[in-house]
Design brief:
198 residues, mainly alpha, Rna Polymerase Sigma Factor, Chain: A, Arc Repressor Mutant, subunit A, two-stranded antiparallel ribbon, 2 strands, 65% helix, elongated
Length: 198
């Protein structure tokens, strides 16, 4: 049976929201909309570390591009702030902007021209007992060690809950390639986790 890997959202701290209280958030957003530099800096300071954590899952070796995506994301946050309707979490709203900015980057920079025909999805699931024995940080390091295409598809599928059809559209690949990359990522992770358990 397939096991899923549960990883705490980078927009939470030990399961608790890192957002300010609702009334404080309303005031902060209002001040940002009034173009208060202090409020904009506070918003950035509150949410940039978590946003950067998401970005680094995709671009852990590319500090320059990761920083550029972070800056682009917060430019979009600040210029689209009037579109936030207080329906749903503010953290989730920012996260969606960050992920959209990352996918724009990936669409331009991750190339996969090789067709992958055979997919054996059931062959590479990771045993949950093994996953529980390694730390969250170790697990993320294993994900970061995957080749670019596998890491990208794994992140989009597992962390962002995109379908293979959506991933194929983002990366300009076919759905079967997306499935192959996910399966290959799982196989590689399984091997790495098993080697850690020895």
């Amino acid at each position: 049976m397939a096991e899923t890997i549960n990883i705490v959202s980078p927009f939470t701290a030990q399961g608790r929201s890192i957002a300010p209280m609702h009334s404080e958030l309303s005031v902060l957003i209002k001040d940002c909309l009034a173009e208060s530099r202090g409020a904009q800096k506070r918003l950035y300071d509150l949410y940039a570390p978590a946003a950067y954590g998401v970005i680094k899952r995709y671009l852990y070796k590319n500090e320059t591009d990761a920083q550029e995506i972070l800056n682009d994301s917060f430019f979009k946050v600040l210029t689209k702030l009037d579109q936030y309707t207080f329906q749903g979490s503010f953290e989730g709203w920012i996260r969606r902007i960050v992920v959209n900015t990352i996918t724009d980057y990936l669409r331009k920079n991750v190339k996969d021209v090789q067709p992958h025909k055979e997919v054996f999805e059931e062959s590479a699931f990771v045993n949950s007992e093994s996953v529980e024995k390694i730390s969250h940080k170790e697990l993320l390091q294993l994900v970061q060690s995957l080749p670019d295409s596998q890491r990208t598809v794994f992140n989009l599928y597992v962390f962002e809950n995109y379908s293979h059809k959506e991933i194929a559209n983002i990366l300009n690949i076919n759905e079967n390639n997306s499935r192959w990359h996910l399966n290959d990522a799982r196989r590689r992770l399984k091997e790495k986790i098993n080697s850690l358990m020895k």
